[in-house]
Amino acid sequence: MKTSIIICTYNEEKTVANVVRSCCEYNPDAEVIVVDDGSTDTTESSLKPLAETYSFRYERLKENKGKSWAMVHGVEISSNEIILFFDADVSHIKAEHFISLLTPILKNKADMVLGQPSETLIDYRVNPFKALTGERALLKKDILPILEDIRTIRFGVETFINLYYQAKGKKIKYVLLKGLLHPTKYQKTTPLKATKEFLKEGTEIAMALFKNHDLINQRIELLFDKTNQRALQKLNLLQQEINKTLSELKKKIDL
C-alpha cells in the first residue's frame, strides 16, 4: 500500500517549508499534499522554492474554513490507500517518526496510529490530550464514510474521528515520536490570543462530543460487549478445567 501525506497549514510560514521538505525526503514514494487553509502570511511564497527540488501538491483554499475542512479536502484529492496527517508547525522531524506511524498500519496491527510528540508542554506520559494529536495514520477506506460528518466541525475533528473508531471497535495504537517538537500556542503568539484560541478550540471539541452522543453510546455498548465476552471466555476456561478435573477423578475411581 502507498501513502498520501496530508499537511494542513494556516499561517505557519516559519515551519511549513521544513515540514514539507522532511516529508518528501523521508518518504520519496509517498504523495505529499499541502492544503493551505487560506493563509495570510508568506506560506505560499515560502513553498515555491521547494517545488524546484521536491514533488508535492499545493492546494490553497480561497478562505479559512477550519482544520477539518482542510483535512477533508486533502483526503478527497489524495490517491493512495494510507492517509498520514502531519502538522505544519512541528520541528526536529526524523525518518523514524514516519516509520513508527506507518508500520502498524502496514503490518495490520492497527486501524489508526496516533503519534505523540515527546517535546511538548505536558509530559507525554501523562498528557490527557494525546488523543487529539495531529500526527495520525489510517486507511483511506475507513475515513471516507465520515468525510461529510467532519467537514465543518473544525477543531472537533480529532475528537469525532477517535469516537468513530472506538464506536466501530477499530484498533487504535499510540506511538511516541521521540524528539519531535510541537510548540504550544503560548509559544507561537501572545498570551491573550493563545487563550482565546484555546477557548474556541475547547468549545468546538465540546460540541463534537455533545452532537455525537450516539457514538459515545456505541462505544459504551462495545465496551460492555467486550467485557461480557471476556467474562464468558473465563467461564468457559473454568468449565473446561472443572470437566478435566472431574474426568481425572472418574478415571481414578474406576481404577
Structure summary:
The chain has 255 residues and is of the alpha/beta class. The protein is 49% helix and 17% strand.
Q: What topology emerges from the helices and strands here?
A:
Blueprint: E1 3-9, H1 16-26, E2 31-36, H2 43-47, E3 57-60, H3 67-77, E4 82-85, H4 95-106, E5 112-119, E6 135-139, H5 140-143, H6 147-150, H7 157-167, E7 172-181, H8 185-188, H9 191-211, H10 213-254
Parallel strand pairs: 1-2, 1-4, 2-3, 5-7
Antiparallel strand pairs: 4-6, 5-6
Helix pairs in contact: 7-10
Description of the molecule:
With 255 residues, this protein is an alpha/beta fold. The chain has one domain (3-211): Alpha-Beta Complex (Spore Coat Polysaccharide Biosynthesis Protein SpsA, Chain A), CATH 3.90.550. Helices cover 49% and strands 17% of the residues. A 7-stranded mixed sheet has the order 3-2-1-4-6-5-7, sandwiched between helices. The longest helix has 42 residues, at 213-254. The radius of gyration is 23 Å and the shape is elongated. The protein starts with a strand and ends with a helix.
Features:
alpha/beta; 49% helix; 7 strands; Spore Coat Polysaccharide Biosynthesis Protein SpsA, Chain A; seven-stranded mixed sheet; 10 helices; 255 residues
